[in-house]
Amino acid sequence: MKTCLVVDDSRVVRKVAARILRDMNFEIVEAGDGAEALTHCRARMPDAVLLDWNMPVMNGLDFLRALRREPGGKAPVVVLCSIENDPEHIHEALRSGANEFIMKPFDADILESKFAEVGLV
Amino acid sequence: MHDTAFNELADLALKGSGQTLVPSKAYLISARLAPIARREGFGAMEDLVHCIKARANPVLVAEVTAAMLSKDTGFFRERDQLSHAVNDVLAARLAAVPGKPRVWCAGGSTGQEAYSLALLMAEAGLTEQIELVSTDLCKVATDKARAGVYNHYDAQMGLSIHRLLAHFNKLQSGEWQVSEALRTPIGFRVHNLLETASGLGKFDVIFCRHVLSGMSRTARARVAEHLAGALQVGGMIYLGRGETFHGLTDRFEPARDLDGVWVAAGTANTAAARAAGG
Question: Which of B153, B154, B159, B161 to mutate to test the interface with A (most CBs of A within 10 A)?
Answer without folding.
Answer: B161
